[in-house]
């Protein structure tokens, strides 16, 4: 079937949404740093610099068509895995432990870099390639073929998940799992296979949660889970009992969000102290200083971003590109739900930032990498002769 490429289309809607998120991020970080004497650094200026770097990354990604990115998928996957291996064996002078996790490279004059943020996007690319290639070669649906595809997905995903869990970084591992689960659901594998597997996973997670409450020493011994991670579960269930420790962040976050009411207290008028309020708990700052209206605006912007990515995926005639969109939606969507959920007490605290809003160079680079893929998909959108469209 012949194909003709339409005139290149820059996605102005996506660019405008990114601009609005940039503005929201700058306002939120400025509000956070002007009301906290915890740090002397200018996080607003650094965030602007990281956004500029992210724009350059988007421009670099758009040089490549989706088919070219697909050809590089195994190289990107291998590179991201190699970096995680280097991080694991690197000395503390290069990769220090922060909050009990060895997740960052310390680069003099540059700051810290978290390679797992890039790993998320590389996992999206390689899984999209594996699934689309398998389905292209599959002549007819069969249980055997579906099991083969499921095995490929597990083998590809388990390597980065295992390396990230060894750091240990439970939050990022959960993001990688969300990406894998989302793409597996959309891969075309029969529900006769998926239903019992995911039912088993739910039962296993329930069992792990029970062990956290009743026998945490077993998880610490066999799954490399650290004691401070148990504290996050305990403080989530009963924050008042742990108000002087792990529950401190959650209680103060709830106080800040509740005190903002409808319109907020105004910029620089926060009364509740929250450590790391420019990163993981930036949503609490928004809710306190700009109230329910400000928090709703941020949520709507993120929802519109996910909605637009969904539209791009539906418009694409490439299975690989559509799977890329699914993976990016799973990644960003999980971040949004988990971050906002933990600040309002619906989910345990995991240290996952709010995409495009929280301060963080590594996180923003990873997200802009993912958005660059969406720009590329839209920019090189192709139509086909004799297609139904």
Automatic annotation (TrEMBL):
The chain crosses the membrane at residues 12-32, 44-64, 76-98, 147-164, 170-186, 193-213, 290-308, 320-337, 357-381. InterPro entries: Cell_cycle_FtsW-rel_CS, FtsW/RodA. It is a multi-pass membrane protein. It is found in: Membrane. One of its GO terms (molecular function) is lipid-linked peptidoglycan transporter activity. Its main location: membrane. GO terms for cellular component: cell division site; plasma membrane. It holds the Pfam family FTSW_RODA_SPOVE. GO terms for biological process: cell division; regulation of cell shape. Keywords: Cell shape, Membrane, Transmembrane, Transmembrane helix. This is Rod shape-determining protein RodA.
């Amino acid at each position: 079937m012949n194909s003709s490429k339409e005139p290149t289309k820059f996605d102005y809607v996506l660019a405008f949404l990114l601009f609005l998120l940039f503005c929201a991020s700058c306002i939120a970080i400025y509000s956070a740093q002007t009301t906290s004497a915890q740090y002397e650094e200018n996080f607003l200026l650094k965030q602007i610099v990281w956004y500029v770097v992210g724009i350059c990354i988007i421009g670099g990604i758009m040089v490549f068509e989706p088919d070219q990115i697909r050809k590089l998928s195994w190289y990107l996957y291998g590179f991201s895995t190699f970096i995680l291996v280097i991080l694991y064996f690197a000395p503390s002078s290069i990769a220090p432990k922060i909050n009990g996790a060895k997740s960052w490279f310390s680069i003099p004059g540059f700051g810290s870099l978290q390679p797992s943020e890039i790993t998320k996007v590389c996992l999206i690319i390689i899984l999209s390639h594996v699934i689309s290639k398998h389905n292209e070669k599959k002549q007819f649906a069969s249980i055997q073929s579906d099991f083969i595809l499921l095995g490929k997905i597990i083998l590809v995903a388990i390597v980065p998940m295992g390396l990230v869990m060894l750091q240990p970084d439970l939050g990022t591992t959960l993001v990688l799992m969300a990406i894998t689960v989302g793409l597996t659901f959309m891969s075309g594998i029969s529900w006769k296979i998926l239903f019992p597997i995911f039912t088993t996973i739910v039962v296993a997670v329930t069992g792990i949660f029970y062990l956290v409450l009743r026998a945490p020493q077993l998880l610490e011994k066999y799954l490399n889970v650290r004691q401070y991670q148990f504290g996050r579960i305990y403080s989530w269930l009963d924050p008042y009992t742990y108000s002087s420790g792990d529950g401190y962040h959650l209680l103060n976050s709830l106080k800040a969000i509740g005190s903002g009411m409808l319109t907020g207290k105004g910029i620089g008028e926060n009364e509740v102290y929250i450590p790391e309020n420019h990163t993981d708990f930036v949503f609490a700052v928004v809710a306190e200083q700009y109230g329910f209206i400000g928090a709703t605006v941020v949520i709507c912007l993120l929802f519109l971003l996910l909605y637009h990515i969904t539209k791009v995926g539906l418009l694409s005639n490439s299975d690989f590109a559509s799977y890329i969109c699914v993976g990016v939606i799973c990644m960003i969507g999980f971040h949004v739900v988990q971050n906002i959920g933990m600040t309002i007490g619906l989910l345990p605290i995991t240290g996952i930032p709010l995409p495009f809003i929280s301060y963080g160079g590594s996180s923003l680079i990873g997200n802009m990498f993912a958005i660059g893929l969406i720009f590329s998909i839209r920019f090189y959108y192709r139509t086909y002769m004799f297609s139904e469209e």
